[in-house]
Amino acid sequence: MTSVLSSNLSTCLMIALASASLAMTITQTELFTTLRAWATRINDLLGHLFSCFYCMSHWMVAGGMLIYHPSLLKSGIGLIDWLTTAFAVLTITTFINGLLFKVFQAAIRTHMMKHEAQQILNPHK
């Protein structure tokens, strides 16, 4: 593997990791509840964007691609190379988001089970 391809591949992986993390954080955590509510008040479609980690991932990947300009292919047609690389990064981002979402679901289930157990053990609190 050439050093340029290796560098571009690692850049793509970093964009995918950062995009997945940012998209999940913005769309799923309490930290951004106010932002999601504001976006929904402004426009329903914008509100959906700020509530859907898959949708947000597209924009995060596009931002990362525009900033870092990685290209995994060299066909001589820059736009095609860029789009192909962007969708490859988006695919990796989607897999990472799926893993993160499973972790969030497990954490929520654990929290709910702890809460239910506390309610059963201490019904008067």
Secondary structure layout:
Elements: H1 3-28, H2 33-42, H3 44-49, H4 53-68, H5 78-121
Helix pairs in contact: 1-4, 1-5, 4-5
- Calculate Rg over CA atoms: 19 Å
Total strand count, please?
Answer: 0
Helix/strand class = mainly alpha
Q: Separation of termini?
A: 62 Å
Number of helices: 5
Strand-residue proportion:
under 5%
Major sheet description: none
Listing every helix as H and every strand as E from the N terminus to the C terminus, the arrangement reads HHHHH
Provide the low-confidence segments as ranges.
none
What does this structure look like?
With 125 residues, the protein is an all-alpha fold. It has one domain (3-99). The chain contains 5 helices and no strands. α1 runs antiparallel to α4 (53-68) and α4 (53-68) crosses α5 (78-121). The longest helix is centred in the last third of the chain and has 44 residues, at 78-121. The radius of gyration is 19 Å and the shape is elongated. The model has no long low-confidence stretch (mean pLDDT 92).
